[in-house]
Amino acid sequence: MIPLITFVGPSGSGKTTLIEKIIKELSSRNLRVGTIKHHLKTLEVDHEGKDSWRHKVAGAKAVVIATPGGTAAIRSEDKEPDLTEIAERYLFDVDIVLAEGYKSANVPSIVVVREETRKELDLSVIRKPVAVMTDCDIDTGAVPRYSLDDTDTIAEFIAEKFLQQRPSRKVNLFVDGKSVPMKHFVRDIVEKTVRGLISSFKGIENPRKITIMIDEE
Q1: Which of 69, 153, 160, 164 is the most core-located residue (most Cβ within 10 A)?
Q2: What is this structure's pTM?
Q3: Which CATH number does the domain 4-42+83-163 belong to among 3.70.10.10, 3.40.50.720, 3.40.50.300, 3.50.30.50?
Q4: % of residues, the chain, pLDDT over 90
Q5: Closest to 132 in 3D by CA, of 99, 107, 105, 109
């Protein structure tokens, strides 16, 4: 599973600026970073009169807007998906996902708090705090504390704690020379199925690299 960490804390603590700096730090290590921002208001990325808006009004469940520079998907949801579901559904091809918000999510959380916002902080509602970044003297118990300026240190903390322990195994699928993105559970199914078949073959034990090619000409 792709590592997922959320940055939580009172409004005005500087979470967005901090995440921006950490994205740069992790990207400089040649890591692909995905992000999720929790927004409590209605999402307005589609506007009345636009073609995509007309598609949605006509009843489309999902609309994809594709351009030479990027792609955006707009989906109607019966309920707001949880943080892990969003990461698995949309950010399956990155090395790590950084989220902002979701303070009650059951995922590792880095707490961000400033002196002027500390009265609004309630650590008891944060389920999995792994670090606190702050400019004030607060008791964080067994949770390590870092300065708000220590973005390189916290980036290293993230890399060591959540990335170096990941298995180096890779499962890639190419069809007609094009890489096909797969969610982690699909990769697991593909790997388990192939390894299960190969385990029945004589003379093959613990293969380290498996290549399957199907040519239709």
Answers
A1: 153
A2: 0.70
A3: 3.40.50.300
A4: 36
A5: 109
